[in-house]
Amino acid sequence: MATTTTPVPPPVATASAAPAASAAPDATAAAAGRRPIAVRLLGDTHRLGRRLPQLAVGLALYGASMGLMLRAGLGLDPWDVFHQGLQRTVGLSVGAWVTICGALVLLFWIPLRQRPGLGTIANVLMIGAAMDVTLRVVGTPGPLPARIALMVGSVLLNGLATGLYIGARFGPGPRDGLMTGLHRRTGRSLRLIRTGIELTVLAAGVLLGGTAGVGTVAYALAIGPLAQLFLPWCTVPTAAQTSRKG
Q1: Of 65, 111, 235, 239, whose CB has the highest number of CB atoms within 10 Å?
Q2: Residue closest to 197 by CA, chosen among 89, 121, 132, 108
Q3: CA triplet 234, 55, 124: central angle to 5 degrees?
Q4: Pick from 184, 199, 165, 198: which is nearest to 59 by CA?
């Protein structure tokens, strides 16, 4: 006698579990995308009472150091050679070109999928303004020894300012973010990418009439070690680092 079997339907839970599991990452990503802009800009909110003033002071000192270096008249860092060349060729102030170029560089973040932080936006808005204020207040010293002292002091101040604004942990400046974004997308070394960018803007700045000289060389040699010296003292620890120390 032939036997018949009744087909057993598959469990409903098994059919619905796979879509639910696959949808979880999408839901998480969507939730992350819906975070308030303030949260995305601030990121870690630990110790904002120190980090926000430190960011503002660091960026103001950075702009001031750039103005002092320009007043010394012995050569500028590569980006400021470019900014000064634009000022001499097109017009506007050097600080205005610092702001304009920072905003334009920020546009290159879009294809690199870089996300700006509060420090990135503040960098664009504050450094050029602080530089122009310094140039209005400080005159050009006459004797060469005074100009050399001003150049050395401006490089030292720039190193401290770099440690302060990076240590506040609100995101990189536009030019630093361009470097790290190209590094991530191309796989090239940071040193190679930074050198290529700075040599390009330096050459363009010299062709436009910007001032390169002994100050340019001194800045290139000293700013890395100075930033490394000041960063440990200026970096605000995260909440996790603070709890581990506690």
Answers
A1: 65
A2: 108
A3: 130
A4: 165
Type of residue found at 155:
V
Helix then strand then coil, % of the chain, to nearest 5 = 75, 0, 25
- pTM across the whole model: 0.80
At 151-195, the pLDDT tens digits run: 999 999 999 999 999 999 998 899 988 988 898 899 898 889 988
Angle, helix 78-90 to helix 190-208, in steps of 10 degrees: 30
Q: Looking at the chain, how many residues does it have?
A: 246
Asked if 55 contacts 120 with a C-beta cutoff of 8 angstroms, the reply is no
Per-residue pLDDT of 141-163, as tens digits, reads 889 999 999 999 999 999 999 99
End-to-end CA distance of the chain: 80
The tally of CA atoms less than 13 A away on the side-chain side of residue 30 is 5
Other C-beta atoms closer than 10 Å to the C-beta of 122 total 22
Concatenate the DSSP letters of all residues of 183-229 into one string. Answer: HHHH---HHHHHHHHHHHHHHHHHHHT---SHHHHHHHHHHHHHHHH
